[in-house]
Amino acid sequence: MNATVALIAAGGVLFACGTVLLLARPLTRILLGAVLLGNGVNLLVLATSGRSGKAPLLSPGTDPAAVSDPFPQAMALTAIVITLALTAFLLAMAYRSWQLTGSDDVQDDVEDIRVALRAEHEGTRAELRTVIRADRARQARAEDSEDLDDELWDNVLGADR
Amino acid sequence: MNATALLPLPVVLPLFAAGLKLAVGLRLPRIQRFISAAVLSVVLAASVTLLVAADRDGPQVMHAGGWPVPIGIALVADRLSALMLVVSSAVTLCVLVYSIGQGMADRDEATPLSVFHPAYLILVAGVSDTFLSGDLFNLYVGFEIMLTASYVLLTLGGTAARIRAGATYIVVSLLSSVLFLVAIGMVYAATGTMNLAELSVRLADLPAGIRLVLQLALLTVFGIKAAVFPLAAWLPDSYPTAPAPVTAVFAGLLTKVGVYSILRTQTLLFPGTRLAEPLMLIALLSMVVGILGAVAQTDLKRLLSFTLVSHIGYMVFGIALASRGGVAGAVFYVAHHITVQTTLFLVTGLVERRGGTTDLQRLGGLARISPLLAAVFFVPAMNLAGIPPLSGFLGKLGLLRAGVADGGAWAYVLVGGGVVTSLLTLYALIKVWNLAFWRAAPPDLCADGTVLETDDDADQDDSDEETLMPAGRPESASLSGRSITTTAALPRTMLAATMALVALGLAYTVLAGPLTGLADRAAGELLSRTPYVQAVLAH
């Protein structure tokens, strides 16, 4: 099989750019990354058809050897359609996320933070609970993190009763 | 009648029904529900027929559109595919009934019918397509159909929690899809075909190094879908926020589609045990790390999600052994696990409806308040932990026996890991039982008729707080993400669907003889490879 170097190189560059964008937090960047990755991989799939040839239309007198392999083209077409659907969906999600939170950043898993915090403060739970009983979560919040609310701390420390 | 004519039905019928439902519109909810239930029942019947035919006459093959092998797409139902199809269609039918019950109980007809049902049917079509596909690219298409539908289902209602969880899920799935395409490109470049049967012949002629690269690429892709250890971090984060029926069907089926693909490609395309040790290491880590994660959780849904990751390890263990006993054990375990894991998530939905939360620290006394609910939790929970004589015990026993028969040092380590995991599963589930069901009810446990409010439509100033809410919150309750009301009497349809699945789980124990026989024959067919290859290439 003869592959076209240009296609492979272009695919590689698109892949690299897409990967960098995919590692970002905002969904819109991730979306752009996904589009680039999708295009890059389509080029790679196309490259598997080998040297470019005539359009793969079979009519009387066509030389099958001169025709390019239609199979990767069919695969790339299918992949393009799928990428289109995903792009639309991700766009809608980024917009909804912006509607709800004012940003389209991918957020951390709060439950994970909770489980980790509970393990971290296992020994001092009783102590912290009295602190909180006296003055809700304010003190503990100032020490650890600003964006954790009372409710979360209640959950970490166990019921306050 | 020739059973091959039934082959496209599990894929085509749900797709057709999804379109039909959009055409019928929302004015006729009864007809809508009838279409969904009828279509899935027909799919179930077709799958059973296919299983009988595949077991009696060998693999059933249909070439879509009558195109011959290298060009056309082959649909193949051998014993493994047909068995997966039967289990998945039985489970999806029960979950559909459950979701109909839930929609009626919440007086929330519009969302389920306009969004949930079509997306759910498309998901079923995608799952069937992956099971039946005899073509690597069609496998990819099946995955994509399934995943795209699952994106819609996971973010139903578009609440803050679901959008947050959905973002992780979609980005990870998207990455795995891209990697899958890369793998497909490489396989095609190396062999010039996508047909699995042809691939199994041609891959043998490739240099060992290239074959290893292709094998690793496919394993990575399917490993993400199956949620094996290092690639599983997305699962416990994203599944729990979805509505109960969605989480149930995802937990039961989507990961198993990944396991099925690993099983199919490892046995058909890359026979021999070249990657046995790495696979066993992955299996061990999945089991142990997964179950330790489960022990640390206090939210029921997340705890179950971690046990899901953990028990995928058992199946990978069976595949890694690559002996007839190991593969047979894995096949049996997949069937058992689909049913039990789905049941447990459906029960969780009922717990949430009765107790108002899935947070174990707030639940309590459910055994006294609702003995029936306690019973439908207890049986599948013990089944999952592997208490004799339930099918979880039989599945684990089969795998452990195959491990001992293998006799290698790694196999023995895995046998030990499997036993420890089983014990820890029991520990985690007993913890759930003690906290949610057995201890006295806490005074603030939701009384009958409490409205579980969600902040879905609340003003946007609160949104920061809302996204920081811990799991176990009612946000995940209803299909549309709106508030639900707790009820003393559980909705009958939901309860009946759950009990049907519990009964199916028990049936695996009663019918263990024929079922293990079938799993054993399926394993023999997978490992010998010739029946599959001959059946596909003969046409």
Q: Could you characterize the architecture of this molecule?
A:
The complex is a heterodimer of chains A (161) and B (539). Chain A is mainly α and 161 residues long. Chain A has two domains: 5-54 and 68-101, Helix Hairpins, CATH 1.10.287; 110-157, no CATH class. Helices cover 67% and strands 0% of the residues of chain A. Chain A has helices at 5-22, 27-47, 70-101, 110-120, 125-135, 138-144, 150-157. In chain A, helix 1 (5-22) runs antiparallel to helix 2 and helix 4 crosses helix 7 (150-157). Chain A is rod-shaped. Chain B is mostly helical and 539 residues long. Chain B has one domain (3-449, 472-537). In chain B, 73% of the residues lie in helices and 2% in strands. Chain B is globular. The interface between A and B is large, with 49 and 51 residues.
* Helicity of chain A, as a percent range: 55-70%
Most extensive interface, chain pair and sizes: A-B, 49 and 51 residues
Helical fraction of chain B: over 70%
Please count the beta strands of chain B (DSSP E, at least 2 residues each): 4
Question: What number of domains of chain B?
Answer: 1
Read across the widest sheet of chain B, the strand sequence of neighbours is 1-2
Total number of helical segments of chain B?
21
Task: Please tell me the overall pLDDT of chain B.
Answer: 86
What is the CATH architecture descriptor of the largest domain in chain A? Orthogonal Bundle
- Distance from N terminus to C terminus of chain B (CA atoms, Å) equals 19 Å
Question: What's the total number of strands of chain A?
Answer: 0
**Assembly state here?**
heterodimer
Task: Determine Rg of chain B (CA atoms, Å).
Answer: 22 Å
Per the principal axes of the C-alpha atoms, what is the gross shape of chain A?
A: rod-shaped
Number of helices of chain A: 7
